[in-house]
Design a protein that fits this description.
The complex is a heterodimer of chains A (about 110) and B (about 625). Chain A is an all-alpha fold and about 110 residues long. Chain A has a single domain, classed as Helix Hairpins, CATH 1.10.287.3510. Chain A contains 3 helices and no strands. The N and C termini of chain A lie far apart (about 55 Å). By secondary structure, chain B is mainly alpha-helical. Chain B folds into 3 domains: about 140 residues; about 425 residues, no CATH class; about 70 residues, no CATH class. A two-stranded antiparallel sheet of chain B has the order 1-2. In chain B, a hairpin with a 2-residue loop joins strand 1 and strand 2. Chain B is globular. Classes of the chains: A mainly alpha (about 110), B mainly alpha (about 625).
Chain lengths: ~110, ~625
């Protein structure tokens, strides 16, 4: 499958994530949208990794080209998992404090 | 002895420090003693130096004390130069200075102790600066002294600082001097650029190979300095106003020493002036114009000190005439004799003012002959000397300058002689109105008129003796061959110039005729003045016509006011009202307003809404992408 499809899919996912962050007020949905962006990046990384591997392997059957990108993906997954735990904890604290998960109420910085 | 030269200026400096710092502690008698003794010590040392210098074959010596300014390519040592010219000036400054210090001790006795000590501190500082000026072996040291005497002049003119007019006079003197000093300073810079040094010993041998245009520029700039310090047209107006200071100050600073600094400087730089093509003519013309101009003003002045002040300006002009026509010896000779008789006249005037309880208007004097016998006699000697009647000193020096002028051009000679006649006229007018005729002051003044104490009369007598005999050091060739001791003494200093100038010989018969004619004319003028003013009565109506113009000093102050001061003041008002208010304030306030306004606008960006921050971030990222992709 041509790489273009992966790129379009990743861009679409990323844009959905951005728009979600910008437009939604529910903290959990905003959070999910952030995950969406992260995974859009993961998708791109894997796609490019495979592409480079496929190009390199025809000249050198024993190559490891593209392995780094897949390593990155695992890193991002681990970091995302950690971040999710922190993020959900923040959201729980937020709900305890203002009895809402609407981020527009979370504007203490302004006042 | 020359190794100990540094002691000569050191003594007055110590005197200045002791009197200046301890002015609240030292009693009056001690302050006067310190002031006079320090100058006396310098005088004794100067005599010792002189004894060494007068030996035949003495060559100029440079005494280097320490390195003053030392940078790449420029080394200005703090060095003194001992030669015939500087040793002669040392004698004049410390000798006359000492007499005036002694005189001051009595003249200023009414002052409070603190101000009395301050006075002597200033006076000693002045002597120190003046000694630095004449001793310096390069133009920078000379300039330090040059500025120092200007400062002391300012301080002493404004000595009675509670009087606003006196302060104005002091400021005027200072500002006028600054204008000249700028010329001097530029000349020094130019010399550093041209010769890479400011030392006399380095510059003067190089002058021969220097372009005439450069020499003209340097000498003219130096002359600008001289016109400020020595009160020549167009910067002379400060000197008459400087009479606001105590009378001994006028005698020391504004007659005998400081105002001759310009003459000293040009005499010192004589080789440059001889070789510069245009400058000598400029010097001679300005000098002559000043001599004549100031003499005409002096005729109609009624303040005893103003007459003497204009007379000083006039005599200084005569000295510049001498310098301009190349009669350097004559100019220095006249500096010396003028120091004696003008100091004498000023101190005599001080004695009169003292006796008359600070009355300075000669219309209110008269008949003081019998009340002040010593003052009268010495003043008369001073008048005869300045008028140029033989065999008093003024005759010889003035004659030498005028003969130098005649050799150059008879026109200069006749104008110079005319100003000498005017000198005789106003001096005997002054003498007659002060000492002859009836007393015209108040009853109370008449009761208290008294001869001054010995501390004041002794300096008068000494100066009178000097005014009589000083001329004999320069007896002209026509009378006795080889009798001009001063010319031989100063010959090494002016040797290079003399070699360049060549001889201007005036035949002896011509010289006799001119001399005789001049003396006869002076005597006629003298008798006329004595007759006219001998029985002056106070009823004279206010001056009219031309006399009125003279009485108002040709309205020069008013012209300067209209041409320079007023436009300057108008310009300042314009700057204050328009530039300051609108432009500068506008820029400053505008900057503040702009920052405040833009801050208020930018404040909306920081709304505290996380969403809007992210939006900005996204938009910015997209913009960067667009630039990245399409911008190439």
């Amino acid at each position: 499958m041509p790489i273009n499809y992966y790129i379009f899919l990743a861009v679409a996912l990323f844009s959905i994530g951005v728009i979600g962050v910008l437009t939604r007020r529910n903290a959990i949905i905003v959070f999910m949208c952030i995950e969406l962006m992260l995974n859009a990046v993961n998708l791109l990384l894997v796609a490019f990794s495979k592409m480079h591997y496929a190009n390199a392997v025809t000249f050198n059957p024993g190559t490891t080209t593209g392995a780094e990108a897949q390593l990155f993906v695992f890193f991002i997954m681990v970091v995302a998992a950690a971040e999710v735990s922190v993020g959900l904890a923040i959201i729980v604290m937020m709900y305890r404090n203002i009895h809402s998960v609407d981020i527009n109420f979370l504007n203490r910085l302004k006042h | 002895m020359t190794k100990l030269t540094y002691l000569i200026p050191l003594f007055p400096l110590i005197g200045f420090l002791v009197n200046g710092l301890g002015r609240r502690m030292v009693p009056k008698s001690v302050a006067g003693l310190i002031g006079s003794a320090s100058v006396l010590a310098s005088f004794i040392l100067s005599v010792l130096v002189f004894m060494e210098v007068r030996v035949d074959g003495f060559t100029a010596q440079e005494v280097k004390l320490f390195s003053f300014i030392k940078t790449a390519g420029l080394d200005i040592p703090f060095a003194f130069q001992i030669d015939q010219l500087s040793s002669l000036f040392l004698l004049i400054i410390t000798g006359v200075g000492f007499l005036i210090h002694v005189y001051s001790a009595a003249y200023m006795h009414e002052e409070e102790p603190q101000h009395y000590a301050r006075y002597f501190a200033y006076l000693n500082l002045f002597v120190f600066s003046m000694l630095l000026l004449v001793l310096g072996a390069n133009y920078v040291i000379m300039f330090i002294g040059w500025e120092g005497v200007g400062l002391c002049s300012y301080l002493l003119i404004g000595y009675w600082f509670k009087n606003g007019d006196y302060n104005d006079a002091a400021k005027k003197a200072f500002v006028m001097n600054r204008i000249g000093d700028l010329g001097f300073l530029l000349a020094v810079f130019w010399m550093i650029g041209q010769f890479g040094s400011t030392s006399f010993g380095v510059i003067f041998p190089k002058v021969d190979a220097t372009a005439p245009a450069v020499l003209t520029g340097i000498t003219l700039l130096l002359f600008v300095g001289a016109t400020g310090k020595s009160a020549q047209i167009p910067l002379y107006t400060w000197l008459p106003d400087a009479m606001a200071g105590p009378t001994p100050v006028s005698a020391l600073i504004h007659a005998a020493t400081m105002v001759t600094a310009g003459i000293y400087m040009i005499a010192r730089s004589n080789i440059m002036y001889t070789l510069a093509p245009i400058t000598p003519t400029v010097v001679a013309v300005i000098g002559l114009a000043t001599a004549l101009f100031a003499a005409t003003i002096a005729i109609q002045q009624n303040d005893i000190k103003k007459v003497l002040a204009y007379s000083t300006v006039s005599q200084l002009g005569l000295m510049f005439l001498g310098l301009g026509v190349g009669a350097y010896t004559g100019a220095v000779f006249h500096v010396m004799t003028h120091a004696f008789f003008k100091a004498l006249l000023f101190l005599g005037a001080g004695s009169v003012i003292h006796a008359m309880h600070h009355e300075q208007d000669i219309r209110n004097m008269g008949g003081l002959k019998k009340h002040l016998p010593i003052t009268h006699f010495t003043f008369l000697i001073g008048c005869i000397a300045i008028a140029g009647i033989p065999p008093f000193s003024g005759f010889f020096s003035k004659d030498e300058i005028l003969m130098g002028a005649f050799a150059h051009s008879p026109v200069l000679y006749f104008i110079g002689t005319f100003s000498a006649l005017l000198t005789a006229f106003y001096m005997f007018r002054l003498y007659a109105m002060t000492f002859l005729g009836q007393f015209r002051g108040t009853q109370e003044q008449q009761l208290h008129v008294h001869e001054s104490p010995a501390a004041m009369t002794v300096p008068l007598i000494v100066l009178a003796l000097l005014a009589i005999v000083a001329g004999f050091v320069g007896v002209p060739e026509v009378f006795i061959k080889d009798a001009h001791w001063l010319e031989k003494f100063l010959a090494p200093v002016f040797a290079a110039s003399t070699a360049k100038q060549g001889e201007h010989v005036v035949s002896h018969s011509t010289e006799y005729a001119l001399m005789g004619g001049t003396v006869l004319a002076i005597l006629v003028v003298m008798v006329y003045a004595l007759k006219k003013f001998g029985n002056y009565s106070k009823t004279a109506e206010p001056a009219t016509g031309f006399a009125r113009v003279l009485e108002n000093k040709w309205y020069v102050d008013e012209i300067y006011d209209a041409v320079i001061s007023r436009p300057l003041r108008g310009f300042s008002v314009f700057l204050n009202n328009v530039m300051e208010r609108s432009v500068i304030d506008g820029v400053v306030n505008g900057t503040g307003k702009f920052i405040q306004y833009s801050s208020r606008q930018f404040r909306w960006l920081q709304s505290g809404q996380v969403g809007s921050y992210i939006l900005i971030m996204v938009v910015a990222t997209v913009v960067f992408f667009i630039i990245q992709i399409f911008g190439k």
